Amino acid sequence: MDLPLKYLNRFLAGLLLSALYGCKVMTPLPPKVSLQAPRTFLERVDSTSIGTLPIREFFTDPNLAALIDTALLRNPDIAMAIQRIEIARASVLEREGTLLPSVSAEASGGVRRFGKYTSDGVGNYDTNFSDNIEPDQKMSNPLPDYFLGVRSSWEVDIWGKLRTRRKGAYLRFLATEKAQQLVVTNLVAEVARLYYQLLTLDNQLEIIRSNEDLQNKAVETIEIQKDAGRANELAVRQFAAQLLNTQALDIQIQQQILEVENRINLLLGRFSQPITRGNPILRQTFPDQIGVGVPAQMLRRRPDVQQAELELKAYEADLQAARLDFLPSLNITPYLGLHAFRGSVLFSPASLAFGLLGGVTAPILNRKTLKAGQRRSQAQATEALFAYNKAVINAFQEAALSMRTMDNLKKIVDLKEQETTTLQQGVSISNDLFLAGYANYLEVITAQRSVLAAELDQTTIQQQRFITLVNLYRALGGGWE
Per the record, a Pfam family (predicted)? Predict the structure, then answer.
């Protein structure tokens, strides 16, 4: 009797040491320091931010608002993001299920044959000849075995390990919601950017066709002068070549319009069709006042920052659960049902059987696996911290860059307007001088080319202003409500 007792004492000692070691690994980890965002954007503080404006209040063009509404309803990326949310929701339910006992109905049957020279075989043989055994209690060999009832298994969450894993799953569920909001903000911004690109192409097509009319008249004029002996064939060819180049630009712009319309239709989840739009880009109104608020307000609204923060907390919960794996676990496995070795007596009240088994288990030989899991969780949590810090820096840089870009583009727009006006006056003057014989045809062609390039540049700069405004709206956390 001493030998089994000695082994039992060793086992209990090992279990105690395992519990003490588990308590040791639960010492608090040193806190991780995350970045603190600046208090202002480039020393600018506004009471409100355009990032808080609803989509229809920020995008006042009804055609653009209608396109965004359609995209939010039919875009396949949003539909996929919603399904990822459902997957995360199912993971939360799965983790919640581990906190409760698992109960399963069981109807089983089997047969086994005892060897004559085994304890079971000898015992059953002797039992069949006992005076205390009724005829229906005698066991045959092979021996059937029937069970009808319920079995249960329950790990008691005494250390909070299962609740911690449920917390991690819930945080990931919240992170997928933020990811879906991020898809929405990017989609809204992309639809708006393409829409303003379309308005820019409309304006450029209008400018090109206006210049085509001007160049057509110039070709007619130079041909008249050639017939009158005041110009040569080279001048006619130069004016004609310039007109052909402008006509080629016309077709290129039309092709670009088709491509942008197709990209918008793809985002809207529909087949190609014309896009209804408003005035060209130069006739679109630009807001006079643009509030940016404070960085803290932006960080609270940006979905990517919130997603990174939630994922960081989820990985920290995983790390906590990995550390709790070192502690002993308590498992309870009861059962209740009808158990017999003969089918005819299975439903007899005497066949009622129940049992309850409880046990405490602690890891002893598999610590290397648990340590590997803890190190992996530690690395994932640290990586998530770096990702969060990166998201904060990126968010601030995007907002600050968009603000500075808007200020610079406003100055460029003013200069481009003056340049275009000056060159348009130069075209009129060059035509008058050419007709009066004080300028040659090359000066007229140069003036026409310069004004066309300036007008096209003016539309491109105005497009960049609107796109930068959209980028600032997204950078400040707008576009996902």
Answer: OEP
Q: How confident is the model over 167-223, as pLDDT tens digits?
A: 999 999 999 999 999 999 999 999 999 999 999 999 999 999 998 998 898 888 888
The token duo for 169 is 């799953």
**Partners of 463 in the beta sheet?**
none
Is residue 23 over pLDDT 60?
no
pLDDT of residue 426: 85
Contact yes or no for 426/447 (Cβ under 8 A): yes
Q: How far is CA 251 from the centre of its chain?
A: 38
Give phi and psi for 236, each to the nearest 5.
Answer: -60, -45
| For range 261-285, the mean pLDDT | 92
Q: Which amino acid is at 233?
A: E
Amino acid residing at 453: A
Is residue 45 pLDDT above 70, yes or no?
no
Residues 108 and 181 in one domain: no
User: What residue numbers bound the domain in which 134 lies?
Assistant: 100-156+328-361
Give CA–CA dist 45/41, Å, rounded.
7
In 175-214, which positions are buried (b, 16+ CB within 10 angstroms) versus exposed (e)? bbbbbbbbbbbbbbbbbbbbbbbbbbbbbbbbbbeebbeb
d(CA 418, CA 416): 5
Identity of the residue numbered 471: N
Q: Which residue has the tokens 């290129």?
A: 252
Q: Which residue has the tokens 């406003």?
A: 410
Sign of the torsion angle spanned by Cα atoms 327, 162, 8, 119: negative
> 132 in a domain, yes or no?
yes
Q: In which element (H, E) is residue 207 found?
A: helix 161-227
Classify burial at 325, counting beta carbons within 10 Å of its beta carbon; exposed 0-12, middle 13-18, buried 19 or more. buried
Rounded Cα distance, 82 and 173, in Å = 11
Q: Does residue 18 sit within a domain?
A: no
The token pair that represents 103 in the structure block:
């109960």
